[in-house]
Structures are given as structure tokens and as C-alpha cells.
Design brief:
Helix 4 runs antiparallel to helix 5 and helix 4 runs parallel beside helix 6. The protein is an all-alpha fold. The protein contains ten helices and no strands.
Length: about 200
């Protein structure tokens, strides 16, 4: 999927105003594509270098959804290094904003990326106790990949969020959906959730 991004980028920057191949295609691919790929690879291994390269990628092409999402991932990964609750909150807000920037930039044929961004936004929103936004993000993810094997776990997450909100009717709908789609080794746990919702 990510290789397609580089191909799209090459098509985007590969022709100059006269219709011929641009002399700087390799350089631009290196600046945007490779910097982003290195950023992904370095998120854990060399996070400071990853941040520098991802920010550089945004300077070269601020309409590249994947870079915003990787920056969001960078900030989520950095939470392990932070103990101050206020600072954690600020990092989560920053990550949510980056996922929100990535979402409208996704091309219509990149449903997997959009699905992933909505799941990330949902998770961050839940951590920020923005329950309605979390439900909205997870709900928007569901129809994007109807054959996704982990769809049941998204349904379960939505059920738990509705339960947290006190919306028992919607919690039950999504818990039942999760149960119906879940692998057999998860049925017992989800039945417990359904019983909990039924009270």
C-alpha cells in the first residue's frame, strides 16, 4: 500500500511545466517518500531523527496524509517517556489533531489508510475522554473495510464506549454485532459483556 504512495508522488512531481521529466524527481522522492519511510522505520529506533524527517516531509509536501498519521503515531509512541499527566494530555491532543489532518487528505481508493486513521483517532479520543468523538471515529471506520477480520473488536470498543456514556441500547447493538462477528475464542468474553449491559 505504501509503495503506491511513492508511485503517486512520482507521477505528481515527475513532469515539469513543459511536460517532460523533471530533473529533480529523484531528489523529491528522496525528500518526501524516503524521508517518510525512514520516519516510519525510525519511530522506535531513533525517534528524534524520525521527527526531524517527518517534519521535513511535511515541508516538502503538506498534502501527504501518511506523514500526518506517522507524526500522530510518533507522539503516541512518545507517551511512554512522559509521566506528567498534563503533558500526556497535550501530546494526545496533538496526535488527535494530526490524525484529523490526515483523514481528509486520503485518496478515495486508500480505504485501508482511512480505516487505520479513524481507529487511531478513535483511540486517542477515548484516551482524552472525548467519548462522542471516539464513537464517531470508530463508527466511520466500520463501513470502510466490511471484510476486515478485526471488525468485531471495533464493534466491541464502540459498545464499551456507549456503555461508558450510559447509552445501553446502542451498547447492546454493538456488543451483539461484536459477538456475532467474533472468533469462537472471544465469544465467552463478549457474552459476559452482553450480560453486563443487560444488567
Amino acid at each position: 500500500m505504501r509503495e503506491c504512495k511513492l508511485g503517486h508522488l512520482a507521477a505528481k512531481v515527475g513532469h515539469n511545466a513543459f511536460g517532460g521529466l523533471g530533473a529533480d524527481v529523484g531528489q523529491l522522492l528522496e525528500q518526501v517518500g524516503i524521508a517518510t519511510l525512514d520516519g516510519q522505520r525510525n519511530l522506535v529506533e531513533r525517534p528524534d531523527q524520525a521527527l526531524q524527517r517527518l517534519n521535513h516531509s511535511l515541508q516538502v509536501d503538506p498534502s501527504y496524509d501518511w506523514t500526518y498519521a506517522l507524526l500522530g503515531d510518533y507522539y503516541i509512541n512518545s507517551l511512554n517517556q512522559v509521566s506528567d499527566p498534563q503533558q500526556k494530555q497535550e501530546i494526545l491532543v496533538k496526535a488527535a489533531g494530526l490524525y484529523e489532518k490526515a483523514i481528509p487528505l486520503v485518496k478515495y481508493y486508500e480505504a485501508q489508510n482511512l480505516y487505520s486513521y479513524y481507529l487511531s483517532l478513535g483511540s486517542v479520543s477515548a484516551q482524552l475522554n472525548r467519548i462522542n468523538q471516539a464513537i464517531d471515529a470508530y463508527t466511520k471506520a466500520l463501513p470502510l473495510l466490511p471484510q476486515q477480520t478485526d471488525r468485531w473488536s471495533v464493534e466491541e470498543t464502540i459498545a464499551r464506549l456507549y456503555l461508558q456514556k450510559g447509552d445501553v441500547a446502542n451498547a447492546m447493538v454493538h456488543a451483539q454485532n461484536a459477538y456475532d462477528q467474533a472468533p469462537s475464542d472471544q465469544k465467552s468474553r463478549l457474552q459476559t459483556l452482553i450480560s453486563q449491559i443487560q444488567g
